[in-house]
Amino acid sequence: MGFKGNKAALPRKPCQACGREMSWRKSWAKNWDEVKYCSQACRASKRPPVKSPQ
User: Fold this and answer.
1) Number of structural domains, the chain?
2) Which of the 8 DSSP states describes residue 7?
3) Exposed, middle or buried by CB within 10 Å (0-12, 13-18, 19+), for 17?
4) Which of 21, 22, 24, 46 is the most exposed place for a label (fewest CB within 10 A)?
5) Which structural domain, as residue segments, surrounds residue 39?
6) How far apart, in whole angstroms, are the C-alpha atoms of residue 17 and residue 22?
7) pLDDT tens digits, residue range 3-49?
């Protein structure tokens, strides 16, 4: 399954530091399961994980 231009169909998950939803990126294709933070700032913040509202 290749990307056909519909960004709404891409997988999403919350950042563990700020809770902001992040979309799949091609650069994360090989390690999407290990991606936890939306940015270097969140990675450096060392805040405890945010509980996602369900």
Assistant:
1) 1
2) G
3) buried
4) 46
5) 11-45
6) 12
7) 667 778 889 999 998 899 999 888 888 999 999 999 999 888 866 66
Q: Which residues contact 28 (CB under 8 A, 6 or more apart)?
A: 35
Strands 12-14 and 21-23: antiparallel
Return the amino acid letter for 21: E
The pair of structure tokens assigned to 13 is: 């998950």
| Residue 23 domain-assigned (yes or no) | yes
Residue 32 lies in a domain: yes
Q: Where are the alpha helices (DSSP H) in 1-54?
A: 40-45
Q: What is the pLDDT of residue 12?
A: 92
Kindly report whether the global pTM for this prediction surpasses the value 0.70: no
